[in-house]
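Tokens as discussed.
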């Protein structure tokens, strides 16, 4: 949905947007699994291509979808727009120029952006090579727009500005931990795990979790079964499903981990 209304009318449009969005089709719960980067179809159009990695529901979201877009140099995937759900962006490789609320940010690989409902935003590749980025959009049954505003609204986090803290198994970068309009708590960090190590024994928690491998090789234990994962794969873990991850490569592995409820 593309909005051309001035910013002063945004609050008037949002209730109608939310009503229309909530009337969308019901979605099945997403199975806990490793979703392969190379295991999905690629949809191409002039200047860009897209692959849908997973889509469905969680105990806290009526709809969650993750896709990846590649945009060629000098191209934009679409016009700037706004929508009633939230949008998380993670740059996989290359440089992405993002605009939102009158701001322009150049996001390098590993950087993220989080856009609140109704905030107009757009993307463009102003570099000389392709850029690839993940987009996760999600909707809660009863979003609280003022909660997202109070928590700080839309924002970006640059990879180069994230502090890296070492520990006995590798290291960690904390990205954010806050409320949003569609989530009572959304927490994201990036873990680096040394060769041959497991992050922790199999465990469960109420929040669903997503892991995104960006370096190395790993295996994820999902309900007692070990499943290999490579760079670009999405590991989705439903609420209260036992899970653990270990490094199976000869070098450190690094992955995003985020929970939401």
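Sequence:
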């Amino acid at each position: 949905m593309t909005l051309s209304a001035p910013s002063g009318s945004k609050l008037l449009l949002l209730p109608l947007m939310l009503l229309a969005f909530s009337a969308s089709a019901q979605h099945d719960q997403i199975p806990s699994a490793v979703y392969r980067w190379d295991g999905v179809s690629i949809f191409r159009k002039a200047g860009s291509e897209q692959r849908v990695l997973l889509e469905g529901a969680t105990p806290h979201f009526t709809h969650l979808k993750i896709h990846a877009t590649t945009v060629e140099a000098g191209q934009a995937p679409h016009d700037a727009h706004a929508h009633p759900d939230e949008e998380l962006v993670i740059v996989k490789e290359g440089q992405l120029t993002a605009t939102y609320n009158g701001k322009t940010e150049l996001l390098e690989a590993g950087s993220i952006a989080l856009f609140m409902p109704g905030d107009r935003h757009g993307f463009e590749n102003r570099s000389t090579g392709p850029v690839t980025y993940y987009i996760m959009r999600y909707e809660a049954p009863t979003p609280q727009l003022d909660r997202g505003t109070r928590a700080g609204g839309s924002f970006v986090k640059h990879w180069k500005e994230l502090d890296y803290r070492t520990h006995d198994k590798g290291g960690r970068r904390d990205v954010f931990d806050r409320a949003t309009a569609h989530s009572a708590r959304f927490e994201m960090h990036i873990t680096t795990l040394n060769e041959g190590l497991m992050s922790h024994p199999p465990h469960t928690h109420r929040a669903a979790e997503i892991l995104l491998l960006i370096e190395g090789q790993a295996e994820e234990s999902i309900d007692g079964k070990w499943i290999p994962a490579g760079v670009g794969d999405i590991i989705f873990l439903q609420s209260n499903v036992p899970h653990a991850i270990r490094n199976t490569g000869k070098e450190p592995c690094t992955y995003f981990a985020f929970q939401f409820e």
